[in-house]
Amino acid sequence: LDESQARAAQLSDRLRRALEDAQALRDGQEATVDRATAELAQKVAVLERAKADADAQCAVLVEQRDAALIDLEKAHAESARQRDDDADARARLEAKLAELEQELATSRAQLADVRAQHQTQQTLQQQQQQLPAPQQLHHVPSGADLTASSIKRSDTASRWRAAAGFSATGYDLADQQLGQPAHNQPIANNGRRPHSVDHALPELPAGAPVAANKRATLGTDDSRSLARMLGSLSPTAGNGAMIAEAEEEAVFELRSEDEVREMLEREENLITEVLNELIGDLQVPLPNLDAEYQPPDLLFPAHLIGLCVIKMFQYNLARRIDRLLMSAIARVQKKTAAFESDYTSAFWLSNVFELLSIIKTSMTEHQSSTHEYADSERAMNDGMQYLETLLSDIYFGWIKDLQKRFVKLIIPGVVESEALPGFTASDSGFFNRLMGTGPRESTVKIENVLSFFNHIWRTMEFYYVDRAIMRQIMSELLCNIGVTAFNNIIMRRNFCSWKRGMQIQYNLTRIEEWCKTHAVADATRNLDRLLQLVKLLQLQKATDQDIDIMFEVCDLLNPAQIKKLLSIYAVSDYENPIVGPVMNEVTRRAMPSEKTDKILLDTNDLNDQVLYLTARKVPAIETYIPPEFRMPRIRALVDSQTDMAYDDDDDEDEDVDNIVPADYNDYSPYGQQLQHQI
Questions:
Q1: Backbone angles phi, psi at 667, to 5 degrees
Q2: Residue-by-residue DSSP string for 38-63
Q3: CA spacing 20 to 30 A to 579: which of 101, 244, 568, 597?
Q4: DSSP class of 276
Q5: How far apart are CA 638 and CA 278, in angstroms?
Q6: What is the pTM assigned to this prediction?
Q7: DSSP string, 83-105
Q8: Rounded Cα gap, residues 173 and 178, in angstroms
């Protein structure tokens, strides 16, 4: 019993201790549960706040998406409307071109009829060979040039002396050969200048060549055809051929404003001369080191077309302005649509901008207080709008062609070219290392890129392209370098090394120096992101302080781009490796905006761009015509303006101070004729 009581006491003591341990364990578990519950409550609160923030961000993103969709729909609608407008404009231009082609076919048919009549007249000439020779031949001064009608500021007086060497019209010459009295006998001075066709001149010795200068008869085609056939008759076959050649190079004479207006209003061959000789058949002059070209030598199509348009506006010929401008625009667009040559593109880009500037200058100076010129002003404004569209088409079409050729030089010439000695990059791709071949040296160098720049720049300078257009074209090419090189470097591991960064930096410095030399340093801002990307390749990447420097120096790059470049950076043997904490810190900084940041730069889409240019003020219209161009009607229009100025000069001798200096022979585009300024 005592032993049992002792054992019972032991068991009671053990039970008490077990109960105490169980109570202590229960208390500990409850404390642990309380702590876990508190922590979970805190986490739930954090998650709820995060969920609320995410919901708010989602709501903002939904609103932004809806706004972006609305803007996109508006942009699509605007683009569709613009395409419809362009299609309508193209349809109108094609319709006008069809009309012009029909007129050209009609003109060719009329020319065939005239040739047939000319053959008939040659038969008549053979029958009249026995008739006596004319009593009066026309002396041609030895210094007179039958083909040179180009007016410059220093040769006008000599042109009038040369014109005095022609006396008889084609009708007079034909009547004398047929033995009939001439219609126009020499008469007393009636106020005309000495080079009038009524002024008789001494005879030529026997055997001297004969040349006739016939005044154009403004009227029907039959009268002009008759004048051409009668003017081709001569005593001998040789003289007949020379007179026929003189007719081909005939100089129209417009001796009054009425004749000028009649030619501008009714003469269809005037528009034909503009379309064929100034645009269609014109051979673009190529750059030549042996010859120096001045602006009138290369911009004469714009100035001559501008002269015709302004004269038509002065006479309020709205329909003729429409027809001339629309036909010329359609012909230039057809000639430049293929972009076969940089010379053709630069030549017509310069001339279209010059013509636009001439018309805008004349409309700026013109002030009309009545509605009499409303139709003509409407025609001029429409023409300016179509010229702006044509200028934009030539500009962007040429830019696309340049970029298509230039993009082949960017990677080998700017990124792969290793012109800096001592920093040759030995990095190569995985495929080359696998095949055991080293990197191949690029055959395209940075000099090829600079040569391309020099070619385009010299071409634009030769054809006197406006400086604003030149700078914008170079800016487009530099933007192409910045985008293409950036996207290739950030996506290719073998381009991301310190030595490669040094080589690219050197090549970009060469490009910047070229831009400063040619006064287009502002365009290098298109290379800023590429320069920072290359700078990032050369910075230290070992410590947290280096990370701060990277984000401060490369402020144009977003965190996602910096993270991408560091993730593919090829560490050289002499560089410290990019340790884990550095990449973790960069990843942490890139995380908030990683989903919205773009790694690649957007390509330069020319379809969404607009050309903004300000037309320059043209002080005077140059009336220079190259000697090899015939264009008798345009020459007559040019000569008539200067001739009228000289006629007024003869009538005013008392006030010397009001006379324009002798070297000012250009026609002013400011709505008034030259004689009004004298």
A1: -85, 125
A2: HHHHHHHHHHHHHHHHHHHHHHHHHH
A3: 597
A4: I
A5: 15
A6: 0.60
A7: HHHHHHHHHHHHHHHHHHHHHHH
A8: 9
